[in-house]
Design goal:
By secondary structure, the protein is of the alpha/beta class. About 40% of the residues lie in helices and about 15% in strands. The strands form two sheets. An eleven-stranded mixed sheet has the order 1-13-12-11-8-7-5-6-4-3-2, with helices on both faces. A hairpin with a 5-residue loop joins β9 and β10. It is globular. Pfam families: Abhydrolase_1, Abhydrolase_4.
Length: about 525
Amino acid sequence: MRLHPFPTASGAIAAVFATALVLTGCTADGGPDGGPGGPNSEAAEPTSGTAAVPEGLEDLYAQEPAWQSCEQDAGDFECATVEAPLDYADPEGERIELALVRTGGAEDGAPHLLLNPGGPGASGVDMVVDSLDFVASGAVQDHYAVVGFDPRGVSRSAPVECLSDEEMDAAREEHIDPSTDEGLDEVRDSAREYAQACDENTGEVLGHVDTDSAARDMDLMRAVLGDQQLNYLGFSYGTALGASYAEQFPANVGRMVLDGAMDPSLDEFEVTLGQAEAFEKAITAWAESCLAGPECPLSGTAEDGVQQLRELLAQVEQSPLTSSDGRQVPAATFVAGLITPLYADENWPMLTQAVADAMNGNPDLMLYLADLNAGRDEDGEYGSNINDAFTAINCLDSSAPSDTETLRSQAEQLDEASPTIGRFLAYGGANCAEWPEKPVDEPAPASAPGAAPIVVLGTQGDPATPYEWAPALADQLESGVLVSWNGQGHTAYGRAGECIGTAVDGYLIDGEVPEDGLTCD
């Protein structure tokens, strides 16, 4: 499992109500050779030559997409689809279509920059259409034709389909306590029913939406777009896609930036445990900020305030709240709303208001935040399949123990790491135990020998991809370059101010590799 199933990403959820931060000030550690930036400090030039075409994929690599105006009111964008093999082990077999969108206005012959917002399960098409200015500077947009894509299994690209809108609503209103034997049996029964629905409604695609296959799709897109190297900006889980691409196609790596880095060597539980610790720190930071401002519903010290939040959650566990539209808000849905604004400290005032309302018995704002997270609109339609794709991708990417003894032990560790929400992150292994498709991969470090410099960004107060994962990934990659932001929230580029913006834009546009160890305040 990559990220806990409350997935968001910079530009996907946060951009809905985020405002840009303007921060200045940078410090840098010397590079590994003692010079200003180490061996990667010179400008990185694109590699010349023609990238190799994998055997059996010649016709797919030679296809030309038919760009046309997007069906939705997408402004100055063009949309297209490209074909990819369902199974790369059988390139002559069934094929699927992958959805792409690109910006207009770039000069003819401009290189392309692929974007991915994370998830797994978030739509890159939606990211570009809805949040382009948040995730790519004007200078980057002038230099590149920016391309968003929906990875296989996501949204418009052979989507995983499991539950109807009504069934999804019903599932999100359920309250199950897996800490009891009866509750754990109920969790397993629910997971089995859900897996069967996904299998019946999705079909063969369900077994081929793994990250490595999606990364192979990215090389296909690179070739179809006419680029010799892949220029790529990936956020959150998008860094896992980027690392997989670099590992499989190191010679094809162009200018790659991985923001909100994941550590590909971690297993499902290690990821969840790291997130539990990071979210607990973020909750404490929010409580401190809340208590320092006006109209905070908490009182006393930050520790006191966090305890009051825990007491509120315990009340919701015992008696779910009811929203003004009659929907039940159980603890799991409440927690999904609670953590959503933690992805960007610009949104902490909204969390403060949501908690204040909930303390007064009104869960409407918290439910609104949870709906944003789940991709549900005001009409009750789930325009995104992010929850279904999230589960499908994670269950293929790694195995996870599901025996009762291990699950109970993991739950105790998560509760210790995060007394506020750790118990809601537990029992993830049960979700994939009944999955109709077996894992096709296991966690492993990424090294990508021979790749061009890969810039890895980490945020010190990131709750979703803990900062420690960024130096871990940068160390694993032979050409990794670490850039850090001393800030709060998930990811940095687009919200961390001039220092990060200059470092990223300088690399993407001019090939100027940032100093390894650069820290922005």
